[in-house]
Amino acid sequence: MAAVPGLKRRGSAYTYRRRVPDELRPVLEKRELWVALGTTDYRKAVVEARRAAARVDDIFAEARKALAAGVAFEMPGKPGPSEREMTTAVAVELWRDQRAAASTSPVPMDMPAGDWVDALEKTIAMFRASDANARAALFARTVAIIRDHKLSIPVPEPVKGANGLSLAGQSFTLSPDFLRLQELVRRGEIEGRARALDRVEGKHGDMAHDPLFEGVTTFSPPPVQSVQGTTLGEAIERFNNDPTRAHLTESAGMKFVLMFRALKEIVGEARPVISITRPDCAETQELIAGLPPNFGKVKRYAELKTLKEVAALAAERRDRRLSVGTLRVYTHSMSSFFNWCISKGIVTANPAVRMAPPKSASEKGRRPYTIGELTKIFSALPVWSGSEGGRFWVPLIGLFSGMRLGEIVTLRVADVTQKDGVDCMVLRREADRRLKTPGAERVVPIHPELVRLGLLRYAEAMRKKGAEALFPDLPGEDQDQVADIFQKRFAYWTKTTLGVNAPGTSFHSFRHGFRDALREAGSPIDATRALGGWARSGGVEERYGQGTRPKTLAEVMARVKFDVDLSRLKPM
Q1: How do 13-19 and 159-161 pair as beta strands?
Q2: By the 8 A CB rule, do 241 and 10 touch?
Q3: What is the DSSP letter of 67?
Q4: CA-to-CA distance for 494 and 376, rounded, in angstroms?
Q5: At a CB cut-off of 8 Å and minimum separation 6, what does 380 contact?
Q6: Is 43 exposed, middle or buried (0-12, 13-18, 19+ CB in 10 A)?
Q7: Which phi and psi (to 5°) does residue 566 adopt?
């Protein structure tokens, strides 16, 4: 999919940015225009960005006309009403009409019942066919609703004629919001007459023919009062565009995409968030649990419209389902969303709290690699990595530093430096690099074995090339994506190719092994915490010089030994 100029990601959501031409800045009083696209999905963002580009083109064109004419230019007004606001306005009008109809005779006094039935059926047919008379009536009713309910929708001025307001001879383009509201009005007009027919036939007249108006009755409160708070669709849109979440990565936002899709499929976008129950959340969790991994990339699943269809086909085929760990991630995302709703005053309780499945025995039993497993991995490393770049250095740094995978793959050339006369890797939080805990900001002396193998020479070579990233060859757009791709490829290589597939082993096993090696080396607890980032708090500067100076840490690091054969690794 071709890139769209101006498409930017702010946190987990996408925006469209456009520079204002110099000649238009005095008119628009802006240097840039930013348009929130309301999505965390890249493909959707591309589509919305192109639409935003067209709208901005229109704004620039109108601004140029105003500039040429020497008149003031006003930026387009605020966004139009939501679907819920428009639906509620139409439902209120139906409620008023039905309350009035219930207090009168079902048949006009001056008309036979048969003629009244014919008139109602003819009017319903007219609205369904949308003939000229119907369009005129719908236009007038839509304009009245816009004005009565103060909806932010532009209204074209009708022509005044001898017989009142008319659309004849007028040329204008109705806005998309106007047309959407007019369609809702059409459905409301049909619903009102269908209920009138019910009353003629002796029925109570409160049965909904259109699901849109379910619950609108002559004895119910007005729809405006019966709608309790923010709908799920509105909450999700607000969540995706919340500026307080702008620090999150795209990958973090993606953890919510499938969960939101499942939740909307179970309860519907129009459902007030406050009415969502724990059983609703449990049903959402069960739906996600029945999905196969990466189903969007498999043709037989990608062609299906709903997640329920995907889960049903997966069950029929007995395909592999999402792992317990993945299900836990999505369940935590659901709980996080409701916690966010609490923080915004949308709800007062979290219906998804403590719903995540417990960790499996294999997850609880994560362990270090054995010496035999390490020997097998590092003996084959030159073949897998080509003895250079990220594939070569990342496992070695993991072994001899205990750093987390996400910390290693985002190392910059500038992070390899000297502190206290010691060659170190310095980990700090950056805009595009998150660290797991406050203690993860730290100085890690470079192990003598990494120096022997040429890590410093490699870093210097990257510096001379003008590289910013220490491992620019690793694929991925951000920290999570780079780490995820590396983790999957490393896991496939070790488990499938090398047969290092014992339960509880993964790249994180290097970290477990490093802690054990520190213990064997007699490392003091404060040095152990500082080296591994296990300290509870404090940044690099806070701990610097408090018994954990780089020189002291380097002495501890030099005592860390692994009885593993690295003879096949040739120094750079």
Answers
A1: unpaired
A2: no
A3: H
A4: 9
A5: 497, 498
A6: exposed
A7: -110, 20
- The owner of tokens 């499929």 is 265
Do residues 523 and 547 lie in contact, with contact meaning Cβ atoms separated by under 8 Å? no
Contacts (Cβ under 8 Å, ≥6 apart) of 449: 396, 400, 566
DSSP string, 136-197: HHHHHHHHHHHHHTT-S---PPPEEETTEEE-TT------HHHHHHHHHHHHHHHHHHHHHH
The Cα 300–Cα 495 span in angstroms is: 28
Query: CB under 8 Å to 506, separation ≥6 — which residues?
Result: 366, 487, 491
> Could you count the other beta carbons within 10 Å of the beta carbon of residue 59?
18
Retrieve residue 15's tokens. Answer: 């925006």
The domains of the chain are located at: 7-19+37-69, 83-226, 232-358, 371-558
CATH architecture of 371-558: Orthogonal Bundle (1.10)
Q: Which residue, among 212, 263, 206, 203, has the nearest Cα to 88 in the 3D structure?
A: 212
- What's the rounded Cα separation, in Å, for the pair 537 and 540? 10
pLDDT tens column, 346-369: 877 899 999 988 876 555 567 899
Instruction: Round to whole Å and give the CA distance between 23 and 25.
Output: 6
pLDDT value of residue 161: 43
Residue ranges with strand state E in 329-467? 416-419, 422-427, 442-445
Residue that is written with structure tokens 């409620």 in the block? 95
Q: How far apart are CA 95 and CA 208, in angstroms?
A: 12
pLDDT < 50: residue spans in the chain: 1, 159-171, 225-228, 537-547
